[in-house]
Amino acid sequence: MKQKEISSFTKCLLGIKYFTSNPKFTKFAIILIIAILIYVFYATCESRVGIASWYGKISGRITASGQPYDKEAYTAAHKTLAFGTMVKVTNLNNKKFVVVRINDRGPYKCGRIIDLSYAAAKKIGIIKKGISKVKLEIISPWHEPQILR
Questions:
Q1: Would you call 146 exposed, middle or buried from its count of C-beta atoms within 10 A (0-12, 13-18, 19+)?
Q2: What pTM was estimated for this model as a whole?
Q3: Over pLDDT 70: what percentage of the chain?
Q4: Which helix (H) or strand (E) holds 122?
Q5: C-alpha distances in angstroms, 126 versus 51, 54, 108, 119?
């Protein structure tokens, strides 16, 4: 007699029924799912509002990405975004904006969400004050570089 194959969807449902029948696993699963959802929400959030600062009047220091810091380039430091991510930074006080490429890690001062290069900070008008409330919008996430042949 030929056995009937069980679809992957049915296997998934059977697995869910098995694990949800165990009370210890159910509590753990709910906590895990909530933690994953919170992480995914914050990791993929398209825009954020917070305080920006700027750094580096002197070029040449090696950044976390391995590139030398160029104070005249539109670059920035962010704690979690992948190197190469393009981010639109809008100064909420004067509505000026700049598009920067993430190439460093930071800021390390509590309460700040991005550190801008000198040129980027100058373009949106935060050099004199040093910090400003900004909105970050991810323009293009990092993509694996393609090898041209």
A1: exposed
A2: 0.65
A3: 70
A4: helix 118-124
A5: 11, 8, 18, 10
Q: Which two tokens stand for residue 120?
A: 């980027």
Cα separation, 115 vs 102, in Å, equals 10
- Residue at token pair 């001062």: 109
What pairing do the DSSP bridges indicate for beta strands 112-116 and 47-54?
parallel
Q: Which tokens sit at 91?
A: 């100064």
What crossing angle do the helices spanning 8-20 and 23-44 adopt, rounded to 10°?
A: 120
pLDDT in tens, 48-87: 899 999 998 888 899 999 999 999 999 999 998 889 989 9
Give all strands (DSSP E) within 5-140, no chain letters: 47-54, 75-77, 86-91, 97-104, 112-116, 131-140
Q: What is the pLDDT of residue 147?
A: 42
Residue in 57, 50, 68 with CA at minimum distance from that of residue 107 = 50
